[in-house]
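Changelog note: in this version the structure field was regenerated for every chain. One regenerated record is shown below for reference.
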Amino acid sequence: MAKTEKMEFMVDGGKAAPTPALAQKLGPMKINIGAVMAKVNEKTKVFGGMQVPVKLDINLDTKDFEVSVGTPPVSALIKKELKLEKGAKGEATVKGKEVVGNLSIDQLIGIAKAKGFTDAKNGAKQVAGTCKSMGVTIEGGDPRKVIKRIEDGEFDAKFK
């Protein structure tokens, strides 16, 4: 049975570069770091401008490797959708705190679907919770109220 090594790390989509920590792990295994980065960049280019989780499975006997790409964090998908550099310093729904953007309900559902939640309704509620902490309103209002509206079934037709 072949000896294997598994690694997980975050990269900028399509712009992964070898970090000292990664080089210290791959170097002693005699894995071609340039080839790993090329494969990671090829597989993550569709997520340009976002942080993406990557898993690397290495066969230590043959030095072959397999790259698996996860989905970016919800916050990264929200920032990309709204073309934001970063979220607010505080919550959007607390008086006096910064509001950095506003999502439509369709954008909210689109992010939940892009993230691949098995239950789109619960996924949308999770995305709304992230909006709250990032300073993003939904339909111009408090994300907590949108969560309640989702629970009440107001948007059920959009989840089909």
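Spot check on this record: The chain has a mean pLDDT of 89. The chain has two domains: 4-69, 74-159.
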